[in-house]
Specification:
2 domains; single chain; mainly alpha; 179 residues; binds zinc ion
């Protein structure tokens, strides 16, 4: 069946003359294809005529904004939960370390006090030794005696250094000896 020119008329929604309209009606009565085309065209036209309800765009945008805010809030909550969870996990993982850190100051304080006392006593001993030297040895000491004194002091310093090293290495030894 030849649908020309009716098909073009329907597709282009042409304004038809009364004669053309009569021809089209005659063709539509016999042609299902063009009838379907007409109905489709009518439906399309009706869809095109339906304009958005007044305020629809505004409502749509408002809904979009609301959804965006909700999404942002949800993301914020997610971040908070993530941070709290991560912090909690970190705290849980580092709890032993933190506890050790909290416990260690007392230990370190004990060590530090013992160290200071040791230094003070050592300095006092050295001062005593120096005083004894100054008292016993007059000002006219020959150079070789000075050399002996210096080497003695050097030996004492070495001994002191070793003592400090041992003290800092084994801070509990004095306590263990007292028992
Ligand atoms: Zn037709």
């Amino acid at each position: 069946m030849n649908h020309r020119p009716f098909e073009d008329w329907l597709l282009n929604e042409q304004q038809l003359t009364p004669a053309e309209k009569r021809d089209l009606d005659a063709h539509l009565r016999t042609c299902k294809y063009c009838t379907a085309l007409t109905e489709t065209g009518l439906e399309l036209r009706s869809v095109r005529k339906v304009s958005p309800a007044p305020g629809f765009t505004a409502r749509f945008q408002q809904r979009l904004a609301t959804r965006r805010i909700a999404e942002r809030r949800r993301r914020l909550w997610g971040l908070i939960v993530l941070l709290l969870g991560g912090g909690g996990l970190l705290l849980w993982l580092t709890a032993p370390l933190l506890l050790a850190l909290f416990r260690s100051p007392a230990q370190w304080l004990t060590i530090a006090i013992g160290y200071v006392l040791f230094i003070v006593s050592s300095v006092q001993t050295l001062a005593d030794v120096a005083l004894v030297f100054l008292r016993v040895v007059p000002g006219f000491i020959p150079p070789y005696v000075w050399m002996v004194i210096v080497s003695a002091l050097a030996g004492l310093g070495l001994l002191w250094t070793v003592s400090i090293w041992r003290f800092s290495r084994f801070p509990r030894i004095p306590q263990q000896h007292s028992s």
